Amino acid sequence: MAGAAGQQIPIKFTELLNLAQAGVQPASISFKNVTMESEKYVCVRDGNQVVIINTANWSQPMRRPVSADCSAIMSPTRPLLALKAGRQLQVYNVEAKSKVAECTLSDDVAFWKWLSATTLALVTATAVLHWTVEGDGAGGEPRKVFERHAQLAACQIINYRGDATGKWLCVVGISKDGARIKGTMQLYSVDKQVSQVIEGHACAFASFKCAGATAPSTMFSFAVRTAAGAKCYVLEVEKGDGSQFQKKAVDMMFPAEAADDFPIGMQVSPRYGIIFVLTKFGYLHLFELGTGTLVFRNRISQQSVFATAFHHGKEGIIAVNMRGQVLVVTIDDDNVVQFVVNTVKNVPVAIALASRANLPGADQLFAQQFQAYFQQGNYKQAATVAAASPGTVLRNENTIKLFQSLPAVPGQPSPLLQYFGTLLEKGKLNRVESMELVRPVLAQNKKQLLEGWLREDKLECSEALGDLVKPHDTTLALSVYFRAEAHQKVVLCFAETGAYDKIVAYASKANFTPDYAAILGGVVASNPAAAASFAKMLLTNEAGALADPNQVMDVFMQRQLVQEVTGVMLEYLKANRADQGPLQTRILEINLQFAPQVADAILGNEMFTHYNRQRVAQLCEKAGLVQRALEHYTDPKDVRRVLTQVGSAPGGASGDGGAVSQTFLTNYFGTLSVEDTLDILRDMLRANMRGNLQTVVQIAVKYSYQIT
Q: Sign of torsion, CA 104 106 108 114?
């Protein structure tokens, strides 16, 4: 590509692949045989085969046999292959290996093209038809959209374009006019059902927000080379609200050796607002859409170019030449602004590009403009410059402080609010701006403003912004956290509001594993009853416990919430599984220490059978639950110690859990050996002759046969 040595240019230029290297015969590389609707696929009729080349894996093309008169095109984004043989059309899903649609026309098709991923445009000698083959509107026959104009009757149709709304359409044809190739276009308004014939070779539609506009316009640009010269035109076919755009006509220069050259393809990048025009001889022209300014011109191909398409991924142009090269041209983000400043010498266009696409290279220009307006007291215009600046060049805390420092004018909004208003008109606030705007709004209790901004996606949501909102409105804070993907805080808000059923679903959808113990701790601090319900949900989840049961108990016991933790664990442990023995032991330990009567009830109901009986026996003894201790001890030394130290309550249970009923005690001795029985009875008499005499006598009488 031509250019001065070492010169920085505003484009990146690469060869994506070569059709010959992908196995295509050189004779098949032509306008008649090669179609390309986007950067995703190139489709070639190669002899008696159709070759489908996925550009991401071009070394392994897909081939399928076709008839000699068959032509083929691939959908720009879907794996849909359209085949045309005579008047018969068929569409196949090449991945599913299934037929999607078919039809037979009453007229020959002079040109066809994918208008969208699922709709084919068919141009016959007399009309233009659209055929939707998949999705909404699919299943029917092609429908006639408009009549082909008589002035295109002698033309070879080479292109068909439509805007994003489907309201504007354009057929492009060429014909011989003496020694030159003449271009003729039929521009059609669907709403008005009116056609206009224009001389032109290549065209494109774009949705673009013009200077002063509050809504985008539908732009129509086209390039033409006439006998008198060549121009690129830019005009509005539908004007956006407030647009001040005026039609542009910019000269296109061709070198003397390119006398027969003409524009062959045009693509428009919405992000950059750049028009890419490529000629048959391989000359590239770049124009800025808003002003028509020529940004760059150079030759990128020594071979004739016959097919172009929009490169959606990089917002550039992709082209095929007669050598089989598939070429890609995109904007160089790092160089384009400085190139426009230094080479094109057009600072306003450089600033517009930097602002529109958030590009580097114009920082100093924005800063100088801002300072000039601010020092003049033109704060509205200074705010406009700041709003248009890329990144955080001006949209930062320092600029906010400048507007905060300005005195308020009676009867008018504060300069800071005017600044934020300008930013909101431009689009979305960044993180710092969002925080500084929301802070006074919350202080004035104007939450409805915040709700509106969230609906309109005007704020950059962050965890810090959610934290700022939460003391005022948990539901609004949840909305902020959700947008900020602050997963832990989202889950915490769900828990605090009792929306436990949403927690697991959200965590699964967000592919997030919450720290449930930490969340539970936060809920415990504010609402112990809600925390108990939350904990039950965590532990009894159908797919398995979502939190460690020991951690759950730790959280509750940090605040000595014995009743709550007991309720949670009794629900979790109700299956009485052998592997839950340690947990059974721990919940009994907690209650024997803090609520012995509850522990006595749990043991009395025989809810658990896998706990550490020796450990529980010791704690029962310590808690004064003598009978429960005796039920669990197996060592005679432990039994003897308990009985000799505590004694019994004659006549049955005392009712307080601390004494041993005489009935239990009498039956209990029936489980001991004769030797142990005699030793314990002696010890009981030694320890408390009066208190234990009656019990000892009853036991001796009942078991007299065994011990005599």
A: negative
At 232-276, the pLDDT tens digits run 999 999 999 999 999 999 999 999 999 999 999 999 999 999 999
3-state secondary structure of 233: strand
Q: Which amino acid is at 194?
A: V
Task: Work out the angle between the directed axes of helices 397-404 and 431-443 (0-180°, nearest 10).
Answer: 40
In Å, what is the CA distance from 246 to each residue of 168, 267, 321, 384?
19, 21, 35, 22
Question: By the 8 A CB rule, do 388 and 351 touch?
Answer: yes
Complete DSSP assignment for 540-564: T-TT--SS-HHHHHHHHHTTT-HHH
What residue spans of 343-458 are helical by DSSP H? Answer: 347-357, 363-375, 379-388, 397-404, 415-426, 431-443, 447-455
The mean pLDDT of 523-533, rounded to a whole number, is 88
State how far Cα 132 lies from the chain centre: 29
Cβ count near 678 (within 10 Å): 14
Nearest by Cα to 333 from 316, 311, 320: 316
Contacts 24+ apart (CB under 8 A), 281-287: 281/305, 282/321, 283/254, 283/258, 284/11, 284/317, 284/329, 285/223, 285/232, 285/252, 286/10, 286/11, 287/221, 287/232, 287/234, 287/250
Close Cβ partners of 322 (under 8 Å, ≥ 6 residues apart): 29, 30, 303, 304, 305, 306
Round to whole Å and give the CA distance between 158 and 305: 13
Instruction: Provide the 10 A C-beta neighbour count for residue 81.
Output: 21
Chain Cα centroid distance, residue 339? 34
**Which amino acid does the sequence have at 640?**
R
Quote the pTM value.
0.71
Mean pLDDT of 614-624: 94
Helix (H) or strand (E) holding 667: helix 662-669
What is the token pair recorded at 8? 């920085």
Q: Where are the alpha helices (DSSP H) in 497-580?
A: 500-509, 516-526, 528-539, 549-557, 562-572
Task: Report the distance separating Cα 73 and Cα 157, nearest Å.
Answer: 16
Collapsing DSSP to helix, strand or coil, 620 comes out as helix
Please name the helix (run of DSSP H) or strand (run of DSSP E) that holds residue 704, with its range, or none.
Answer: helix 704-707
92 close to 81: Cβ distance less than 8 angstroms: yes
* Alpha-carbon distances, residue 600 vs 166, 284, 562, 593, 621 (angstroms): 78, 90, 15, 12, 12
Distance CA(39)–CA(76), nearest Å, equals 8
DSSP lists the bridge partners of residue 251 as 231
